[in-house]
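Entries read chain and fold; for instance:
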Amino acid sequence: MKAKRISAVLLSLLFAVNACACGDSSSSSNGSSVTQTNESSTASQPAEGFKTTTDGSARVKIEQSDFTVSGKKLWLNGVNAPWIKWNDFGGSFSFMEWNEHFTKLHENGVNCARVWISCNGEVGMDIADDGSFSGATDQFWADLDELFAIAEANQIYIMATVQSFDHYKDDDNVDNSKEKFEAWRNLIQDGDKTDSYVDNFIVPLVKRYGDSDYFWSVDLCNEPDWIYENKECGNISWEHLSSYYAKAAAAIHENSDVLVTVGMGMPKYNSDQIQGNVISDDYLKTVLGDSSKYKSELAFVDFYSTHWYPWEEGSGLGNPFKQTPEEFKLDTDKPIVIGECPGTPKNGTLEEQYDSAYSLGYDGVLAWKSSGQNDGNGLIDDITPATNHMAEAHADEVFPLNAG
């Protein structure tokens, strides 16, 4: 396997050299990022610039509520690698830094990573103040081409997070002249503009990379709970938010085999037993309606990705590391991953939590976070003892293609 990995990395390096013709967005030698001026970049439908090295044998599917690869069960031994530098794609992306990071992840038993390909919508996206959306920049697509080459070389499945509550957040700590939150609020609350976003970004995304076995899933939004609950994020209704999820999910299913989810911050909006599952099949079909151009039968998420932090247990929302999915009050008609949790638990060890999640019936864990700045939840060296442990204890399910 080591020889295979070295060969794959060499291939990805050759890919990077070729990609330089599209424009170099890597960091300078002193570590400071060279940020592209996206306002002057041209947004367009992406050219066919990415060619996968995969053949379909590593594609993640869902069979009987399990993730599988070539008919073998897959357990997602994951991390959040949301960014190395905020707004990497179309901005401060560095091939060498991402390649080094993914190589280290693979060496430590990681088989999947959740990457925020758009952190707050201020870079790489061509969106007007009124919410009109034209597409992503050429530099964005060039950077993402390199990410997927790196992912394939290192056998790491990508969950691509395309939005966050940060897109909608009025942040008093940043330069207001660069903020786009009003534009994103306008987009999400206007059906035609939401359609343009789906047609001009979501569909091109899955068409461009959908043939890659390592494009595991699209996460349509990071923690939309706060967009609904918090004034600083707009207090936008679930009807508007879930209408976008329904349209995007239907479009993804119509155009690719890539799986779809929404990274919910709390179980209460992901459970009919608490406050209602706003991404359930029935709710997404209801908000989509019969008049939509998108196919209602394709408006569903493929799996649930709930996030958990210790404050939730103190607020009465339970603890997935102590409760089965049923006890945690999640709907169990689909696979369930714990899409975020602290990399440095307050009680016990992360190894124990990954073990517990496996034993209780969850389909994977992605701790926060392996890259970027330390926000108090640890970084890669805090997480890899757990991923190494799971890769050794459950090798046949973490890397099923290598199983005998």
